[in-house]
Amino acid sequence: MTGSLVPAGPVAHPIGLAVASQPDADLVEADFLDAELVDAELVDAEVLDAEVLDPAALAVLADRVAQAQAAPNTRRAYAATYRQLETLLILRLGRTPTPADLTPETVVAFRDALEAAGRQPTTIARHLAAVRQLLDAAGADPAARRVRGPRVGPTDPRPLAEAEYARLLAMPDRRTVRGRRDLAILYALGDAGLRRAMP
Predict the structure, then answer these.
(1) Tens of pLDDT, residues 77-94
(2) Cβ neighbours, 10 Å, residue 170
(3) Residue ranges covered by each domain of the chain
(4) Strand pairing partners for 139?
(5) Which end of the chain is least crowded, N or C, by CB within 10 Å?
């Protein structure tokens, strides 16, 4: 069968919602965020049925890129990311997306939607890493590849509790030269104040 995955009238998309063929722009982001983001463990590449997908559809390329990954977990994770991206594009465009729709604006919208949905910066970074592979395969605008997620700031180390410090001091073997040396270093770090600067 030829033709688009999305028929005229209501638009079916990868996670089972239906939207008008010309969705209200004000509702696009809200609809995407209301949709349950696809769990990577539940994605099955076999849902991409060649008989109903237009060969020019983004889903075809996305499936090929996902299946090219070496590790099974990576294949599932990439497939999940691509289905989420396709969902957003269908909601925004009202039609089946193609590789030509992978613009810098699209990637920014995807990143912003994930951030608005409460995804952690590290999770967003993983999604964008998967999207960059799809952009490369599509020959997309290089500017789209340069879209970055929210900055992940350094976290302050947690100071040891007294009981933890005591257990640490008990670990070196005091019968050996190395153990006595290690114990002296630990005492220096803990008792002489050689630790991270306090605010």
Answers:
(1) 999 999 999 999 999 999
(2) 10
(3) 11-145, 156-199
(4) none
(5) C
Whole-number Å distance between alpha carbons of 26 and 32:
11
Residue 102 CA to its chain's centroid (Å): 17
DSSP sequence for 85-117 = HHHHHHHHHSS---GGG--HHHHHHHHHHHHHT
Cβ neighbours for 60, distance < 8 A, ≥ 6 positions apart: 48, 50, 53, 54
pLDDT tens track of the chain, all 199 residues? Answer: 444 333 444 444 343 333 334 444 444 444 444 444 444 333 344 444 434 557 788 999 999 999 999 999 999 999 999 999 999 999 999 999 999 999 999 999 999 999 999 999 999 999 999 999 999 999 999 999 999 988 766 666 677 788 888 888 899 999 999 999 999 888 888 876 555 544 4
Beta bridge partners of 11: 19
Q: Is the distance from CB of 95 to CB of 21 less than 8 angstroms?
A: yes
Could you tell me if 47 and 122 are in contact, meaning their C-beta atoms sit under 8 angstroms apart? no
